[in-house]
Amino acid sequence: MYELIQAGKRTFYMEGYARAGIYVFGKDSACAIDSGADEHAGLALLKHLKSMNLRLELIINTHSHADHTGGNALLKKETGCAVYAPGAEHAFISEQIISPAFMYGGNPMPELWPGFVSESCKAERLSDAVLPEGLTVVSLDGHSFSHVGITTSDNVCFIGDALTAAAVIKKGNLPTLYDVGRTLESFDTLDSMKGVKLIPAHEPMPDDFAETIALNRQKTLDMIDLVRDICSTPVSFETLTRTVLDRTNQNANMVIYMLTQNTLKGYLTYLHGRNELEYFFENNTVMWRVKK
Q1: What pTM does this model have?
Q2: What is the C-alpha separation between 276 and 270, in angstroms, rounded?
């Protein structure tokens, strides 16, 4: 746990529930790429930095989800480092209430907080101007609002949650996403990154990611077909959610239920945008059906 592995001359990553990266620049400066799932990961990352005599100058988060930002607040407090995240993600990190409120669609119940919240930590919007020399941003949108990958001068790319682990997909679970179209585009981007060493947050790292990318793409396409099939007969959103949970063999709790609903809204938006689904009201209930 929290073992530090060298992936290139200036590039390292720390194992954990969600991998965190370290990129060395200048004489003794470091940039963290994500910060781990919690304060324990943050402490472990700080320990590695101290052992390497490195000063943490900044954290770049690939996106705002709590398992990637859990060490932010501790590291910022201990080192004074800046924290950056792409697009709207920086707002989610800065105010912890936004993530569970977004997931719930209103004032979030306490059961949702542990699954979606890390300690609030003031973050700024990521721009090219703040990137240390040797780092570049790759758009890997879809999983969240403005998800990115970070590529280092060692031809190593930290891809966050742009891919779901092959083992998870093979179990039939529904990968969490925000935007279906941009998710499919990100798979194409990853496919094009030949010769780049990919570092996912959770996925075991095979020598060749082609199978994992293909599994992710096919799962997304299969889910498009599944939602379309369920909506061949008019259904309410609650019925759609229950049917998907049943067909993907998931036992719902409040976190799983909200993640599933949030993801399914992405599929409905995608199919509605392609003019394949439509909604209508029946007895004050929103119903979805394949467009005739």
Answers
A1: 0.96
A2: 9
